[in-house]
Amino acid sequence: MHYISTRGNASNLDFAGVTLAGLASDGGLYVPRAWPTFTQAEIKAMRGLTYVDLAAKVMAPFTAGSLSEDELRELCAAAYGSFSHAAVTPLTQLDNQQWLLELFHGPTLAFKDVALQLLGHLFERFLSGGDKALTIVGATSGDTGSAAIHAVAGRENIEIFMLHPHGRVSDVQRRQMTTVLAPNVHNIAIEGSFDDAQAMVKRMFGDSEVTSAITLSAVNSINWARLMAQVVYYFWAALQLGAPERKVAFSVPTGNFGDVFAGYVAAQMGLPVERLIVATNVNDILHRALAKGDYSVGSVTPTAAPSMDIQVSSNFERLLFDLEGRDGSATAERMKIFEQDGKTALTDAMRSKAGLFQSARADANEMSGAMRWAYEKCAEVIDPHTAIAIHAARNAGISADVPVVTLATAHPAKFPDAVERATGVRPSLPARVGNLFDREERFIVLPSDYVAVRDHVLGHAARA
Ligand SMILES: Cc1ncc(COP(=O)(O)O)c(C=O)c1O
Ligand SMILES: N[C@@H](CCOP(=O)(O)O)C(=O)O
């Protein structure tokens, strides 16, 4: 399998290459040269597989040339062995139509673990025996940070720098990062927003002072391997609900557009998907883009679903590339205008090509209402991000015979205050997380200034 950049001006790489590279050298994101597909018979034959076996089967076409299906299965077994539920990502029924896909049974209680536990093993495999030392730089609005840190803490030849917006993540989210005291972990609180942090991370990949000195890699969903691992659970859920004979709709709490893009990839591979519902909070740039063609950056409003307080969604570029007919120059031009002006308009033709997507926005009351509905009518305590997608799922007008699966992206105990306000229930942290509030924290605060952050990274980076 070969990978190309969405901006058409970087070397093509194999799977090992894109995993280590993270972002393409032209600023674009790597995508497979063509979407691999399964026949309906092949999908039917996946029924009944364990999560690990299914993961190896679904991902094998993407790793071909770098890892065999057997090698991949071994890595998946190691990655998913750390999950607290035997089903890895269990499916729970809410009512006659609504289902929850619980993605929070990994070590840090969010869907990020599904991909990042595997990515830790992939890094180790691709670095082993060589003399490369990797410097990972990532941005987090709360969940990627701890999942990535837990995946690489203490690993040899890797230093990780994680940027989070100072004071804008929950206490649990911050402590899940800052109480990991392994010497290769560097937490940086930025006096700015997640978008500021993400922009600095991307800028480092194009900065020759950085790239000539150290080998950079990414743990955010700009790294293709992240998305690849997230495709699996769409197959997992749909197969249990009757695929490939029956279509399934998914409702996805969305910020950086990675999780829902993984659903789009599953559909490109042949999974019968009825609809992908892109659910946003009041930071609704993606809702405006899909509903009206207006992809324009506004200012970020802090919400009780802080992981989705995002304006510039990295993976939307991967969709734009497909909507532009996989034309790298056209995508590069569009992204250049977007980076300059903070806006770009989707044509009607592009919007109609994106017809699999439907979008919705939930405000604070709608989010709380969905938490209350889940608790009072279905006896489920859900987190604020999941609630946004539940609100969208219940109001999407999907035909009653189509199951709707909401991706439950975080454990409610990550956001106890918001959950308690809505339901009266204060969820407690699972024992496996330990007592975060008794542990020492370590992080530094830096201004939202690219040079200050870059110099800090260069001063502490991994060197072979
Ligand atoms: C709990 C939670 N839900 C939803 C999202 C949004 O996912 P994505 O950025 O893949 O759109 C995030 C952040 O990524 C998150 O941490
Ligand atoms: N919500 C995310 C933001 C980063 O998203 P990613 O999927 O691109 O890593 C977070 O929790 O950090």
UniProtKB/TrEMBL annotation:
Domain Tryptophan synthase beta chain-like PALP: 87-323
One Gene Ontology MF term: threonine synthase activity
Gene3D superfamilies linked: 3.40.50.1100, Threonine synthase, N-terminal domain
EC identifiers of the protein: 4.2.3.1
Keywords: Amino-acid biosynthesis, Lyase, Pyridoxal phosphate, Threonine biosynthesis
Required cofactor(s): pyridoxal 5'-phosphate
Magnesium as UniProt keyword: no
Pfam families reported in the protein's UniProt record: PALP, THR4_C, Thr_synth_N
Catalytic activity: O-phospho-L-homoserine + H2O = L-threonine + phosphate
PROSITE patterns: DEHYDRATASE_SER_THR
Top-level taxon: Bacteria
NCBIfam families assigned: thrC
Family label: Belongs to the threonine synthase family.
PANTHER family on file: THREONINE SYNTHASE FAMILY MEMBER, THREONINE SYNTHASE-LIKE 2
Name of the featured protein: Threonine synthase
